[in-house]
Design goal:
alpha+beta, 11 strands, five-stranded mixed β-sheet, 239 residues, globular
């Protein structure tokens, strides 16, 4: 089961596909292929996952329920401001985790940034130049679509907690929740960028089920995978 942030990445790519050209909404009987990037656009995702046997002790094999809400707070010629909030918890009776962050992505980064930064911390500045947040840049996406692959850098935690998440989970740290990443930075983690190649799984769009304004649709999206490395560590990402 994908992590909450992985689900946000999928929605972000769909959002990028939908906003390369702004258009009028499709008639009710048609399935839209473009979703305008506009102030107030809201993307909601939910996660239900069970920690694998032998996974982190804190998870205890219990189910984790999470809800993530990304709101396009402002769209302007200088860029886009996003608000991300989440609510989640583990076993029944445990205290729910909550958090909220903002991130402004500059217009030039939406156009051509070669990096994606989905690591959040309360000490972060609102702007992180040189990286996108909830989508790939238009240049990266364009090369992915035309050439079938593209070079990309992806932000992760490079610290004791990041290594612990690797070791305890028995899999790359992208399996950790977004909250764990944010807390990791607060505990002294360092944001570093893994580099690798993102490749299309199929040249044809895949169906991404969405609820758009309360109506279930099958939205066309790209499916891509890649392996990224930082020194001796490697992670595998599935967009």
């Amino acid at each position: 089961m994908p992590s909450a942030l992985r689900r946000l990445r999928s929605l972000g790519i769909a959002l990028t596909l939908g906003t390369l050209i702004l258009g009028r909404p499709a008639p009710a009987q048609q399935t839209p292929t473009r979703i305008p990037l506009t102030t107030g656009l809201t993307l909601v995702s939910t996660l239900q996952s069970v920690a694998p046997e032998g996974g982190p002790a804190a998870a205890g094999g219990q189910r984790e329920d999470r809800e993530d809400v990304v709101v396009v707070d402002r769209v302007g010629p200088d860029g886009v401001r996003y608000r991300w909030s989440f609510t989640g918890g583990g076993a029944a009776g445990t205290r729910a985790d909550q958090g909220a962050f903002t991130r402004f992505v500059r217009a030039e980064d939406l156009e051509s940034a070669p990096r994606v930064n989905l690591v959040f911390s309360s000490s972060d500045p609102e702007r992180v130049p040189g990286a996108t947040a909830f989508s790939l840049s238009s240049a990266v996406l364009s090369e992915l679509r035309s050439a079938g692959q593209t070079r990309l850098s992806y932000a992760e935690l490079d610290d004791a907690l990041g290594g612990l998440l690797h070791d305890l989970a028995g899999r790359p740290a992208q399996g950790a929740s977004g909250l764990a990443r944010g807390i990791g930075i607060g505990l002294g983690g360092t944001r570093t960028y893994y580099r690798g190649t993102l490749s299309l799984v199929s040249p044809d769009p895949v169906v991404l089920p969405l609820l758009l304004n309360g109506r279930r649709i099958a939205f066309p999206a790209l499916h891509a995978r890649g392996r990224f490395a930082l020194r001796e560590r490697q992670i595998e990402l599935d967009f």
